Amino acid sequence: MDIPALEIQLRTLPNQPGVYQYFDKEGMIIYVGKAKNLKKRVSSYFTKTHDNGKTRVLVKKIASIKHIVVETETDALLLENNLIKKHKPRYNVLLKDDKSYPWICIKNERFPRVFSTRRVFKNGGDYFGPYTSMKTVSTLLSLIKGLYSLRTCNYDLAEEKIKAGKYKVCLEYHLGNCKGACEGFETEAEYNENIKAIKQILKGNFKDSLSQFKQQMRDYAENMQFEEAQKIKEKVEVLENYQAKSTIVNPKISNVDVFSIMSDESYGYVNFLQLSYGSIIRSHTLEIKKKLDETDKELLELAITEIRQRFHSKSKEIYVPFQVELGENIKVTIPQLGDKKHILDLSLRNAKYFRMERFKQMKIVDPDRHVNRIMAQMKADLRLSEEPRHIECFDNSNIQGTHPVAACVVFKNGKPSKKDYRHFNIKTVEGPDDFASMEEVVYRRYKRMLDEDQSLPQLIIIDGGKGQLSSALKSLDALNLRGKIAIIGIAKRLEELFYPNDPIPLYLDKKSETLKIIQQLRNEAHRFGIEHHRNKRSKSALNTELETISGVGEKTVVELLKHFKSAKRVANAKLDELEAVVGVSRAEKVYNYYHEK
């Protein structure tokens, strides 16, 4: 039964904050929304019964979904605003107007004014934000006003006009809120020092200002002005919780295209973010199938040309993670830090999530392709001569040398094959000798497989370092299997992979799928071995004391445990209760043993 494409998309959405876009069958955006958790929010549209008629119609028209992953819910709110303003989707009503989120502007003029605005102009002024709450803007402006004396008038304070005495101080001067720059009572250098400090506050670098506020608060408290101290305390709390930066909207980054790439053995995934006037207005990820062994550079150059043509991009500058050749008319920037690097990282995050979702979708729609990709990746990562379709992993278990056991777990096509798991009781080794135990179980396992003409694995993994690996190799030598089966050891601490006759271990990327499968194998072998070891130890602990009673055999022990459920209850049982289960003679022996004891 074919699974609808929309259902597959819903199953594979990430549990991350972001913005989702609904498209109809003509490919038009019909709705844009934000979410703290994309998977939960988008799924709710299709699992709930909606009272609102408009929402029911919207859900019926959804043909496909796109999403953009961001870092925070605030970023999602800002990005949603950008996309609605740009695309004006039919079912978005609230944010279609020309209002935008508020900014704080420091105007480009002599004795600059500091004020809030909802419009960003290319006039050389500095804009900070945007802010998702006007309350935050008001609090920040109030903080700045309380700390620094700034003018609020809109006079043109040119030097010659001030010298000519064109202006007179207003009420703000007499209230102490302004130092009278209009009459020359404050120098431009002094005023600009304050502006520099205000810019630091708005960027989030407010350590000096914070210490000044705290000192103010202490001074008020010492003078018994507790109400004033409380007001300052509230301002300090706002400052400490305030975060200025947003990757989503940044007026310093004008019209640019941002590209990043993730790739594996078979495919490349290129993410594209389009920024217009400092705002992200589009995101798209392209999947490219590799024909040969194309490099990331070649794939990215191909994708950039294709995507820019598809979306009719005229941007003169692009941000990429490494140098690409695109001709002389396009400026190529490779960001290293700051806001530009943040936006490139956001693009890379979206490429990674797209790749993960494609893998999940592949598992559902085409499991064979998923398995083939994993096997090809493992073969390359582990430097094997063939794909490890059949892997076996061994682990030893013993506590202080008691009840030594071993476990062998089997993975086929990257998944556990539990019917092929095997337990081993160590037979030939006395005491806690992990090396000799490993040698025994590997020999027994593959001797039997050879005798029964079973198919051998392509890869053996030994849970342990060089010592256990050497012991396992002795058994393969004895069976003449050396070189016919690849074998590696995995050390527990640093996830080091050891190969025969190679003193230098291999370290895989901590996030690689190959390492995750090896870790899953190792953990499963450990769990399976410990489970057998515990069962054996528990059985021994239960049976030992009862079986040491003279005249009490195994059959009697089983009957007693079957009835009383535990050895402790047998010990506490009354004589007549024991007689009812095992008869007078044996009951007396058990009863006398425990009560004499």
UniProtKB/TrEMBL annotation:
Q: What is its main location?
A: cytoplasm
Specify the UvrC family homology region profile domain's residue ranges.
Answer: 262-476
Q: GIY-YIG domain spans which residues? A: 15-93
Q: Which keywords describe this protein according to UniProt?
A: Cytoplasm, DNA damage, DNA excision, DNA repair, Excision nuclease, SOS response
InterPro entries documented for this protein? GIY-YIG_endonuc, GIY-YIG_endonuc_sf, GIY-YIG_UvrC_Cho, RuvA_2-like, UVR_dom, UVR_dom_sf, UvrABC_protein_C, UvrC
Q: Where does this polypeptide localize?
A: Cytoplasm
Domain UVR positions: 207-242
What Pfam families does the record point to? GIY-YIG, HHH_5, UvrC_RNaseH, UvrC_RNaseH_dom
Family (UniProt): Belongs to the UvrC family.
PANTHER family named in the record: UVRABC SYSTEM PROTEIN C, UVRC/OXIDOREDUCTASE
**Assembly mode:** Interacts with UvrB in an incision complex.
Q: What does this protein do?
A: The UvrABC repair system catalyzes the recognition and processing of DNA lesions. UvrC both incises the 5' and 3' sides of the lesion. The N-terminal half is responsible for the 3' incision and the C-terminal half is responsible for the 5' incision.
Instruction: From the Swiss-Prot or TrEMBL record, give the protein name.
Output: UvrABC system protein C
What is the species of this protein? Flaviramulus multivorans
The gene name reads uvrC
